[in-house]
UniProtKB/TrEMBL annotation:
<dbReference type="InterPro" id="IPR022880">
    <property type="entry name" value="DNApol_IV"/>
</dbReference>
<dbReference type="GO" id="GO:0000287">
    <property type="term" value="F:magnesium ion binding"/>
</dbReference>
<keyword id="KW-0238">DNA-binding</keyword>
<dbReference type="GO" id="GO:0006281">
    <property type="term" value="P:DNA repair"/>
</dbReference>
<dbReference type="Pfam" id="PF00817">
    <property type="entry name" value="IMS"/>
</dbReference>
<protein>
    <recommendedName>
        <fullName>DNA polymerase IV</fullName>
        <ecNumber>2.7.7.7</ecNumber>
    </recommendedName>
</protein>
<keyword id="KW-0963">Cytoplasm</keyword>
<keyword id="KW-0234">DNA repair</keyword>
<dbReference type="InterPro" id="IPR043502">
    <property type="entry name" value="DNA/RNA_pol_sf"/>
</dbReference>
<dbReference type="GO" id="GO:0006261">
    <property type="term" value="P:DNA-templated DNA replication"/>
</dbReference>
<dbReference type="GO" id="GO:0003684">
    <property type="term" value="F:damaged DNA binding"/>
</dbReference>
<dbReference type="GO" id="GO:0005829">
    <property type="term" value="C:cytosol"/>
</dbReference>
<dbReference type="InterPro" id="IPR036775">
    <property type="entry name" value="DNA_pol_Y-fam_lit_finger_sf"/>
</dbReference>
<feature type="site" description="Substrate discrimination">
    <location>
        <position position="16"/>
    </location>
</feature>
<feature type="active site">
    <location>
        <position position="106"/>
    </location>
</feature>
<dbReference type="InterPro" id="IPR001126">
    <property type="entry name" value="UmuC"/>
</dbReference>
<dbReference type="InterPro" id="IPR017961">
    <property type="entry name" value="DNA_pol_Y-fam_little_finger"/>
</dbReference>
Amino acid sequence: MVDSATVLHVDLDAFFVAMELLRRPELRGKPVVVGYLGPRGVVSTASYEARRYGIRSAMPTLRARELCSSAVFLPPDFSWYAPASKTFHAILRSYTPVVESVSVDEAYLDVAGSEQLFGTPVAIAEAIRRRVRDEIGITASVGIAANRLVAKVASDAAKPDGLLRVPPGEESAFLAPRPVRDLPGIGRRTAEILERLGVTTIGDLAALPESVLVAKFGRHGADLRRRALGIADDRVVALRPDRRSISREHTFARDEPSADVLRATLLRQAERVADDLAREQRAARTVVLKLRFPPFETLTRSHTPGRQLLYTEELYREALRLFEAAWDEHARRPVRLVGLGVTGLTERARQLALGESTAPAALQHALIDLRDRFGDTVIRRAAELEQPPPRESPGRAPH
């Protein structure tokens, strides 16, 4: 019988800390935190010893120091981590071409069709974990399931240095006893609303009538219940290893309450991301929004409209929908950081729709030429004139 649980989520355990311990073995067994210090510095990764004090990724480092003053704090050294990340992704691609890398230390694989060469999904997962240990010197955890959603929860449950397979048909039973925050996409505010409805576990969420969730969360409520049951139509999308995403993000000097400023920032980011897509002759399939609220609550939202995305206006339109819904959900609180990214990059091959002209492409190429010759701020949209142009941070799309 063919095994339909062929999706693997592979995650390197406390990657940055693990890499630091390779060259600082004397720190093994101690609470170690990798992250920038300073008033806006955040924790990138914490060792499992540090996590026992409540320290976690994305926490302000000042707060982490309050929780564990004896912890060793180290600044990130990406030049040291990058070769290991490259080796990690090369290991994954040696088992299947269907690899969706979502960060330097995390990826999804679909190994359907690889069994005759490498054995069962469990055998492949064990081989990957063994090679990560032998070739890099660190450990990885793997979740195996029939879809990405459950595979992700399974790998988190297997940490550290573990492997967990959820058999097809047992997704709901596996998820049911776990805290509702373990379900991807459930942020702090959503969890608080659910708690007021008596929901503390994923099973509690699955047991709620869909009508109750739709009344509270709109169409998103129906999706929440499906996900709580382990139902997800989320295929692994193979991405070229050299470029998996394009994004821009900006941290405001002060938490920003103005809708006009936030929208103008999103528009500027859409323009820069569209420029990058055009330069590389790429298109995107998914738009990703990232928002951070004080003190340090971060959320991401994404949408895949079912067509190639190429131009500023369409990226901005999709991002703005995500932004307005997410901002409303968080009571339109001041925003510390806003980011716009795209994933699912493909070759640029969209045909013109009926009535669509080539004018957007011509305008885009003209703007790119001007910016390449005279600098990024030589020409700006009127919506951007309300504020000085911030220095955008390019990087991977949020997840």
